[in-house]
Structure prediction request, 111 residues.
Amino acid sequence: MTNEEAIKCIEDVLNSDYHYDESIGYQLTSDDFEWLGKAKEGLKKQIPKKPRKTRSEIVCPTCNTLVGSSPYCRYCGQAIDWSDEWWQYNSISIYEKLAYYRKKREESENN
Ligand SMILES: [Zn+2]
Prediction:
């Protein structure tokens, strides 16, 4: 099951008119809705989103804090999609670009 499918399942439960299962006598409670909602938000952050570029900074698309070049936002945990690398070089200095490539190279050597 992918994260997208899991989110769909949770939404089906949350949006269903039937909050009671006769066969086992289970009634969904407000607790169930709360944890299902939290699980859904957590799963959504696992789906990588492209970072957002402001005038001079690259920020998390979910919480708008600086993300540097890490795979996850360190504030909210949003997975960041860096697949369009060209995109982030438009407004950064050559030194930032070199630092980025050095970090990438070091990461691949450590794996
Ligand atoms: Zn964030």
User: Anything to note?
Assistant: Residues 60, 62-63, 65, 73, 75-76, 78 surround zinc ion (CB under 6 Å). The mean pLDDT is 87.
